[in-house]
Amino acid sequence: MIPMVDLKGQYLTIKDEVDRGILEALEKTQYILGPNVTAFEGEAAAYLGAQYAIGVASGTDALHLALAAAGIKEGDEVITSPFTFIATAEAIRYVGATPVFVDVDPKTFNIDPAKIEAAITPKTRALLPVHIFGQPADMAPIKALCEKHGLILVEDCAQSFGADVNGRMTGTIGSLGAFSFFPSKNLGCYGDGGLITTSSAEMAERIKMLRNHGSKVRYHHSVIGYNSRLDEIQAVILRIKLKHIQKYNEERRRVAHLYSELLAGSGVVTPFEDGKGTHVYHQYTVLTDRRDQIMKALTDASIASAVYYPIPLHKQEVFAAECAGLSLPVSEDVAARCMSLPIFPEMTEAQVRQVVDTIVKALVA
């Protein structure tokens, strides 16, 4: 069996440190906003080159609280990608704003900067690019558009921890960055967890209040907030894994490049690296007209595969009314042909070759 991600295999490589760290945290009994949360926030900020990093309960909450801290509200519009997990658009809805979907680039699957300006209206308040599958969006023209139109730039970094653009980490290019630590992520905990980065002291203070029931001083509540605090036990795990994230990402790139080398000439369209940023391959996603055939062959060979994402957001039932008649052909084509192959830092060359051999045999059958 080759899984999409080998969480147990990774755990076993850091088991002693993880087990010891969790037991120490249990002994200290400081479970809510404890010392490991504070330490992780500082260590993550240092790694990312962010001035502030605030731990929250999930990646979805990171997006939600980032938008709330930025003052996005009912009546506002936020431009984003339709080719992403629904949390991106959910967060926009949570603050009462309207997601405006702009089609993606056919090679990177990230929002196409050339199509953004046409979607800007007097109601547009923010741009929310997604660094999909670990490849940074084309941030220079996106940031220029924000500056030109006075818009807030919020980055969805749920899949891009450690990816950089000319040495600058995703999450530090815009006003705010939102990260997810879902277990399968490049930097994943053993449950839910999230992080918000910002260079603004004012934003950071507001996010800290919002995550903790709107309170800066205990039992004094300045705003209506939320219960969205990064868990102390999860912070223990994240602190340990953070020390390895550079190696984890390098190993993911090793696996991805081997896949691309072995799949060359197969007819399967392999991931495109635009060279503007470092792709950290949260997913290795290909395009093929024979998706069902390949996925069946992989399943028969006990090899995992997945489709991220089969339905673009503008075609989801929840957005059907407001997006009626909206055609985003690139996103629709990518959703119809994309599939993701197993990728994880511990994946061996033999495992990669087994996956590729199975695909090639399926294509000639």
Q: What features would you describe in this structure?
A:
The protein has 365 residues and is of the alpha/beta class. The protein folds into two domains: 7-101 and 109-242, Aspartate Aminotransferase, domain 2; 245-364, Alpha-Beta Complex (Aspartate Aminotransferase, domain 1). It is 39% helix and 14% strand. It has eleven helices and 13 strands. The chain has a seven-stranded mixed beta sheet with strand order 1-9-8-5-4-2-3, with helices on both faces. Strands 6-7 form a two-stranded antiparallel sheet. The chain has a two-stranded antiparallel sheet with strand order 10-11. Strand 2, helix 4 (87-94) and strand 3 form a beta-alpha-beta unit. Helix 2 (35-48) packs parallel to helix 7 (232-242) and helix 9 packs across helix 11. It is globular, with a radius of gyration of 20 Å. The chain starts with 6 loop residues before the first helix and ends with a helix. The mean pLDDT is 98.
Fold topology:
Blueprint: H1 7-28, H2 35-48, E1 52-56, H3 59-69, E2 77-80, H4 87-94, E3 98-101, E4 124-128, H5 139-149, E5 152-156, E6 164-165, E7 168-169, E8 176-180, E9 194-198, H6 201-211, E10 215-217, E11 220-221, H7 232-242, H8 245-263, E12 284-287, H9 291-300, H10 329-337, E13 338-341, H11 349-364
Parallel strand pairs: 2-3, 2-4, 4-5, 5-8
Antiparallel strand pairs: 1-9, 6-7, 8-9, 10-11, 12-13
Helix pairs in contact: 1-7, 2-7, 3-4, 3-6, 8-11, 9-11
